[in-house]
Design brief:
One of its GO terms (molecular function) is metal ion binding. This protein has nine helices and eleven strands. It is an alpha/beta fold and about 280 residues long.
Length: about 280
């Protein structure tokens, strides 16, 4: 299958010659020795090193590799598999906000197991995250880029997956084919409520509902599934890794941090909601 990676400057398709990617306008990009492509332009950065830091990336990788979030990955893969089985021809799929690549790699394995033709792209704004992701699979095209400025040719993607990251419906709309689909995963009301009860005096039971924002940009909700289960963290490293991979890390007070650092076990609720979107007719 032809790849649909686009030049971030002019939007023309990039073609690879060995480790160098070029568009017909003459813009060139060298693939990093670790196996990823940096397509994040300086004007698309809000800081020198946007996205997750290496410390955050390593914490997320350790916790995800312990398989505590595997049921989330399984749910995502089942939805994507059903879409792929009902799709004519190969699929162009982008995992936006792929982080260190855990979910992307497991999706790749499922598609390969069912011998479904596809091109899979992992996109994240954090260079540290993508560098780690590139270790997971050489079959996936790993790209450093902004979700708001996705580096794909216009209306070329059949499917976008996006887990636990900011909504960027305008960027999705530019890259998605008219009949393309978007699968979003967000946290539910009780996600990590036990951790939040340690951090905050009062826990705000609120969940992100992506449907209003997606509707504003012409996307209808086509399906929804919730997943709720409990997991036991059995050592302090897991507890601190969980804190590090959540937005709560920025808000934890010293007193609460000391309590967490003293814990060697914690049972937490995993509560997530999946939504599938398609463009309005």
């Amino acid at each position: 299958m032809n790849k649909v990676i686009a030049c971030p400057v002019c939007g023309l398709q990039l073609l690879a010659a060995d480790k160098r990617w070029c568009c017909s306008a003459g813009h060139t990009y060298d693939e990093a020795r670790q196996g990823y492509l940096n397509l994040l332009l300086a004007q698309h950065k809000k800081s020198k090193a946007p996205g997750d830091t290496l410390e955050m990336v390593d914490a997320r990788q350790r916790l995800l590799d312990s398989q505590v979030y595997r049921p989330i990955s399984d749910m995502l893969n089942q939805w994507v598999l059903e879409l792929a089985l009902n799709h004519d021809g190969g699929m162009q799929i982008a995992d936006v906000g792929c982080g260190e690549g855990y979910y992307t790699q497991r999706l790749q394995e499922v598609l390969d197991d069912h011998q479904l033709p596809h091109c899979l792209y992992g996109v994240d704004i954090s260079k540290d995250a993508v560098r780690r992701a590139a270790r997971r699979s050489k079959q996936i095209d790993w790209l450093v880029a902004s979700g708001g400025q996705l580096p794909f040719t216009a209306h070329s993607l059949d499917l976008i997956t996006c887990l636990f990251t900011n909504l960027m419906p305008q960027g999705f709309a530019r890259a998605l084919r008219p009949q393309g689909q978007i699968v979003l995963l967000n946290t539910g009301l009780h996600h990590l409520v036990e951790l939040r009860e340690i951090i905050y005096d009062e826990v705000n039971l609120a969940a992100l509902d992506p449907r209003p924002a997606m509707a504003e940009h012409g996307f209808d909700c086509k399906g929804e599934q919730t997943l709720k289960y409990r997991v036991s963290l059995t050592n302090n490293q897991q507890i601190m890794d969980l804190l590090m991979m959540t937005p709560h890390r920025w808000k934890v007070r010293n007193e609460a941090l000391q309590r967490l650092e003293a814990l060697n076990e914690l049972e937490v609720t995993i509560d997530v909601v999946l939504h599938q979107f398609g463009q309005s007719l």
